[in-house]
């Protein structure tokens, strides 16, 4: 069977993207819209810029200004997406935060805050999404956002490394449970991207130079660089992919 461009089309699909107002989430949301999907943005922040970019591709965007973490009604978020846009086919678990401190000084609050957003929300929103998709009887695609620190240890980011290692394991676990039920669960592992989370690193001339020296592509990633991988994992072109963690890293892991 030949694979035509139609396999990458997201026409008629709805994607729920967390953290879509800025950075990597915005890059993926706009990429999904360009492929034909309507977008539900979940998370704090001004959605105006992302909404305008989505509209420029002729797609709709509904924004839900909920923060992720403790005490969130995840089923309610999915239900609102369905109520407003009629269905939900794709979930991108992108929202994430980071805290930096030496391991000997790392606080319990910084641990809990990061784990709640990066890992707990990833699981429970995926759960709510899967329940909706299975009840509706159509296919679903879950795209988790992992990290280079799903493979490596990093320094001074204990809870971030733990959470992103957990995202990698959770991706495999959910793929094992849901592959035969019509839900693909895969992850994208971004390398070093120019976002708010890396502002401190980019401001440190020495550390930034060390990072760039290891990236074969010779530059920091831009949010739009994730669009292709997101569209692929959201589309029918990846229907036989389950539990994969796809690095988009400028070649970082090859060094």
Structural description of this entry:
The structure is a single chain. With about 260 residues, the protein is of the alpha/beta class. The chain has one domain: Rossmann fold (3-Layer(aba) Sandwich). Helices cover about 40% and strands about 15% of the residues. It is built from eight helices and seven strands. It has helices at about 25-35, 50-55, 75-85, 110-135, 160-180, 200-205, 205-215, 225-235, and strands at about 15-20, 40, 60-65, 90-95, 140-145, 185-190, 245-250. It has a seven-stranded parallel sheet with strand order 3-2-1-4-5-6-7, sandwiched between helices. α1 crosses α8 (about 225-235) and α4 runs parallel beside α5. The radius of gyration is 17 Å and the shape is globular. The model has no long low-confidence stretch (mean pLDDT about 95).
List segments where confidence is low: pLDDT < 50 over at least 5 consecutive residues: none
How many distinct domains? 1
Oligomer: single chain
Written as H for each helix and E for each strand, in order along the chain, the element string is EHEHEHEHEHEHHHE
* Share of β-strand residues: 5-15%
Q: Give the strand line-up of the largest sheet.
A: 3-2-1-4-5-6-7
Secondary structure: helix percent = 40-55%
The 3D shape can be described as: globular
CATH architecture: 3-Layer(aba) Sandwich
- Secondary-structure content class: alpha/beta
Number of strands: 7
Under CATH, the topology can be stated as Rossmann fold
**Rg, Cα atoms, Å:** 17 Å
Largest sheet: 7 strands, parallel
Q: Helical stretch count?
A: 8
User: Residue-averaged pLDDT, rounded?
Assistant: 96
Give the CA-CA distance, first to last residue. 36 Å
Query: Briefly, what CATH class?
Result: Alpha Beta
- The CATH superfamily is known as NAD(P)-binding Rossmann-like Domain
